[in-house]
Amino acid sequence: MAPWYLCSMSLKLSGWDDTIVALATAPGIAAIGVLRLSGNKAIDIANSLFPSKDLHQQSTHTLHVGFIREDGKDIDEVVIALFKDPKSYTGEDVVEISCHGSPYVQQQVLQACIRKGARLAKPGEFTQRAFLNGKLDLTQAEAVADLISSNTSASQKAALHNIRGGFSHTLKELRENIIQFSALIELELDFSEEDVEFANRDKFYELILSAEKTTQDLLLSFKLGNAIRQGVSVAIIGDPNAGKSTLLNTLLNENRAIVSDIPGTTRDTIEELININGILFRLIDTAGIRDNSTDTIENIGVEKSLEKRRSADLVLYIYDVNEYTKK
What we know:
The protein is of the alpha/beta class. Helix content is 45%, strand content 20%.
């Protein structure tokens, strides 16, 4: 993590030394809505709206029940969670206000905080401040977004692994190896005329091979991570009437694609998602591929099929066993 004084300077130079507020839960009617304040005036703002206790005198990581009140008018009975700098998600003073989940009530509390000096946070700004304050590195910050958008067990596990620093640890080791290699090379160059060997050549090769292997592993993990997050694209390819649409309907357990005995029924691609053992697959039904069609529209569909075949992660070829044995 970066030193606190560098992080503080970074925030000030970026104009982010103010206090931000936003709804931390999804908008809409619910039992509870949570609003989050973060910044050097977060406790001051919450304190001015919470007459039940002096929050400055309370310990960090504590809960407090009372009414949010502005200009002598009660807005809602809430629970306030207090997280003092630096022991918070953003590394700043953070106050979370759990109010009742009425959209009207949430907006009343939000606007009260803004009138007291907070500004509405930009999308992702809480995590951005956590990154700038050294609470998260870049890979962990990206993993937070991945975890929020995860929709399968595989994407959830991958995001949690990165939040815990698994990916960061690998990058740190790679960086240290490259720095060590660079230092040894510079040392050799500085004393090259004196014919002095400071490091075994085998050490150089070992560092190079280790860095190369780590880089290749990271590239493969990047492809795997994309497949986990976005789903594995599977192009179902074959001749007309080979059973591609039938297979799609069977896997989805619904009549998603039109099936008939007429060759060329499928003219355009049909894409559907299916979750198999926690991994998302994007099934792509394509037009049957043949060279002798005189139908312009069907030929356009064939071109799309060839395009999907080139770009898909997996290609599943379907053959009509009867036609295949004749050939």
